[in-house]
# Entry
Amino acid sequence: MASSHSSVSQLERFGQAFPNCSQKVGIRINPGVGSGGFSGSTTGFSKTNVGGPSSSFGIWHELVTDGTVPSVVDKYGLEVERIHTHIGSGSDPSIWQSVAKTSLSFCAIWDTVTALNLGGGYKVGRNPDEKTTDLGEIGAPVAEAFREFAKEHGRELKLEIEPGTYLVANAGALVTTIQDKVSTKSSSDGHIFLKMDAGMTDVLRPSLYGAIHPITILPASGKSADVGTSTESVVVVGHCCESGDLMTPMPGEPEALEERALRTAEIGDIAVMDGSGAYCAGMSTKNYNSFPEAPEVLVDSEGKVHVIRKRQTLEQIYENECDVPSGVF
# Structure
């Protein structure tokens, strides 16, 4: 099983466990810059930026170039087989290309390196105005850099990427109902709120990152003829007793409401939140307010529906809870 180490202390402890036996290791390096999400900074903090001085992920690049990491490797007779960098989710293609070239310089430090993992973070356009990363466009100069490395160092490296979100983000949708509709409108301000029978317990990205997901309102009847053409500006929220359970934040600002023009909805209508195939079910605030995990279904290429995760029962939510011994209170 391959191991990857993201700090000097991890590498040191691994070396202590497997000294002088040419144990193969991977090293994750923080290249000094990051990129991702709604942040325009390559060095500042962002929840989706995992590189640069404001990120804890990876060994700081100066500890590699100043000899600190090579000395640990030599001390324990480790064999570095893989270098790993990852700078953020939704990263800028130009920055990604620059980091790829920097990462190749780390591979040159050890002639035992056979693979460079450049992570993921390829931007996926979930909304009509968002552009999806062209892998061919950003990959061409990186491929050329790999060829130049092979020519200079006499060895070819295997390129590894982690395109999970890129592949499945738009392959999933949250389907729920509008369970309530309330208004705080007055002559000067206020909003119309659509309350879904779902929320941060199913899709956390809007509440956590200020991520924007497309939402479509469909009639409860299920008939196309009932879709209608009237729209209204609304704020969509989830079912949790939590003011942060917000499905329509301002872009990159989870603390700020933003109205969205949607088809005029009635209680019982269906709401579909697209772009929910990645970092949604797996990152949800499971069982918050004792809401059960929602069931999941797979629609195959022939349009047939298969249940791939059953709805969680109430008993399953609390089955790991234990009685408090008498006398504790």
Observations:
- The first helix runs from residue 8 to 17.
- The CA atoms of residues 259 and 271 lie 16 Å apart.
